[in-house]
Amino acid sequence: MHPIYELTPAGDRYFDGMVEKFSRALYHAPRGELRLKMLDYLLPQMLNLDAQPVLDVGGGLGQQAAWFAERGHRVTLAEPSADMLDYARDWHGERETIPSDAIRYLHAPLQALPLDVPGPWPLITCHAVLEWLGEPRAALEHLAALLAPGGQLSLMVFNRDALRFSNAVKGNLQKALDDTLEGKGKRQRLTPISPLTHEALTRWAEECGLRVEEVAGIRVFQDYLKNPPASEAEDATLLALEKRYCRQEPHWRLGRYLLYTLTKPLTQPEADS
């Protein structure tokens, strides 16, 4: 098993001491389970997968790194939280489906990832990371620099428009009207400090020389249900509903998360003289 490498943190919100909170709230709860099922459904549709090396940025507890490693990819999992990196390494070690040398662990925030070794990368995943950063636009620019020409970036972000709609549904009308939706990044609250709109993301992507190839909404319906599914049959019906409309207008726009495939052209356009 590869050792954990450490680079200098950059000062945004990380989650040391919150492994149990993340595991319980995000991955062992209906919303987290649905998110993983939708990624399992969407990633093969939205990415060209050919066992290429993967850089998993902000890989958290290691679910996405495991998904790629089990499909023949060699993965570098970069995560700024030492606690989460330890959890991921231990969990991966228990899974017989993951080759022992398939995943390398790097203790580093996105902004400190080196551009030259071993990149540039043909495939980068960065899921639910940008919304926890004080300068998400700069982070996207760094991701673009890490990406090889012709490469793919699988980017998932917390949808500001969905957060506004959810607040209105809950009766927080003034908060929705004032657009005061950002979390404060304190204690163990999990409201992102920088939720993003589709319009901002697509504008930044163009400015960073990236092309939006695919987009989908994740958890388009689940977060707005008055009553959660009460049986396995209702769970299956909800999953089928999510799959049917996750890429259709106008429904994908209200997904709690927006999932993008961004590509870096083989040749960048020349700047105007």
Number of beta strands: 8
Level-2 CATH architecture: 3-Layer(aba) Sandwich
What is the average per-residue confidence, as pLDDT, rounded to a whole number?
88
Please report which band the strand proportion falls in: under 5%, 5-15%, 15-25%, 25-35%, 35-45% or over 45%: 15-25%
Class per helix and strand makeup: alpha/beta
Query: For this structure, what is the CATH homologous superfamily?
Result: Vaccinia Virus protein VP39
Helical fraction equals 25-40%
- The largest sheet has its strands arranged as 1-4-3-2-5-6-8-7
Q: What distance separates the N and C termini?
A: 51 Å
Largest sheet: 8 strands, mixed
Using the CA coordinates, give the radius of gyration: 18 Å
Describe what you observe in this structure.
With 273 residues, the chain is an alpha/beta fold. The protein has one domain (4-263): Vaccinia Virus protein VP39 (Rossmann fold, 3-Layer(aba) Sandwich). Helices cover 36% and strands 19% of the residues. The chain has 9 helices and 8 strands. An 8-stranded mixed sheet has the order 1-4-3-2-5-6-8-7, with helices on both faces. The longest helix has 17 residues, at 30-46. The radius of gyration is 18 Å and the shape is globular. The N and C termini lie far apart (51 Å).
